[in-house]
Amino acid sequence: MPKPDVIAARPPDLPSPWRTEARVTLMEDARAFARDVVLPLADELDPQKAEMPRSLLDRMAEKGWFGVTIPAEHGGMGLGVFEYCLVSEELSRAWLSVGSILARGQGLGTQTLDEERRKDLLRKSARGEWIGSISLSEPTAGSDLAGVRTKAVRDGDEWVLTGTKRWAGFAQAADFIEVLARTREPGEGEPRSAGLEPFLVVKEAGTFPKGIAGRVIDKIGYHGFLTFELELDGVRVPESDRLTGLYGDEGADADSGGFASVQRGLNIARVHTAARAVGVAQGALEDTQAYLQEREQFGRSIAEFQALRFALADMAADVAQARAFWRQVAHLLDQGEPAESESAMAKLVATEMAVRVTNQAMQLHGGNGYTTERRVERYWRDARLTTIFEGTSEIQRRIVSDRLLGKA
């Protein structure tokens, strides 16, 4: 049975004070692109666990979406977190991985020590010519990034990286891999995150450089790009490719050491994840709305049964609530507010909501929902991941509770 074409022609739902003509135009453009370009590709490639084609990234680059948050002086759109998440939500409604790939631009991998090179990389990032992979986690270090054990040893004008990294999405197809490694052990009285620095491993797209071997992790969802476990064996990185900024504990104070330099980035990532989760849930909602009107039982449309109507109403309310929340927090970030607790709350609320809504969507599809003939199973698989990546729900609860009660 063919999948229905159900990305609805929803009216622009940007209430004051967030509604501007430019934002409505941006949202409508992203929505049309998701419907006409992304959705057909997702329907074809997701069942194959295949990668999104480079041609899709090129079309997104033409829109300028890899540079939404890059200043206009460097070729970007010069917009804020709000617009970045607005585009990502619409793309994620069609395929989560496409809403996610935008984060691999936005100036990622540009914080080099040389200012002129940094400007050049920013321009490439804005054009979609510098799309990267982030390699932070390890088999024994996920939420606790301070537990990273990959070593970076200085050898003249180079650093030599050795260790195992895990969950490096898009690593082979990327133009670079940003690797978090330990240059030294923490000294007495220093935080556990002391000595952690990011390094830029420049590579040819589609290959791994000398010293890196990648093993594909077979995921149950989040298809569109491959995710790898990487073995780094003497990877040489010039000093010029050591990036500025340090990483620290997920639950560290916002003003403590290295964590302060990436706190805003972590908060943006959480709100971005909230927006992506809302997009996935919106897809499940719209598909279910169409299915209830299509399906007939007992001589009439099941859209007439009150229990099912009320379930759909609850789904719609949950999606709208989470959407309003991420927009509010994105606005705060664009206003320069730290919004650490709010970002964690938005991520927690939206991702847990996406799991509930996609699960209910599958239930309302009945047996048809438990097939690959309908998109709802894709939304269900992808939604489940949103409660895990970019900090698990438990980490978000830790952040919020620590702000409310102090650290345990």
UniProtKB/TrEMBL annotation:
Its cofactor is FAD. SUPFAM superfamilies: Acyl-CoA dehydrogenase C-terminal domain-like, Acyl-CoA dehydrogenase NM domain-like. The keyword Oxidoreductase applies. One of its GO terms (molecular function) is acyl-CoA dehydrogenase activity. Keywords: FAD, Flavoprotein, Oxidoreductase. It comes from the Bacteria. The keyword Oxidoreductase applies. Residues 21-129 form the Acyl-CoA dehydrogenase/oxidase N-terminal domain. Residues 257-405 form the Acyl-CoA dehydrogenase/oxidase C-terminal domain. Residues 134-235 form the Acyl-CoA oxidase/dehydrogenase middle domain. Belongs to the acyl-CoA dehydrogenase family. This is Acyl-CoA dehydrogenase. It comes from Hansschlegelia zhihuaiae.
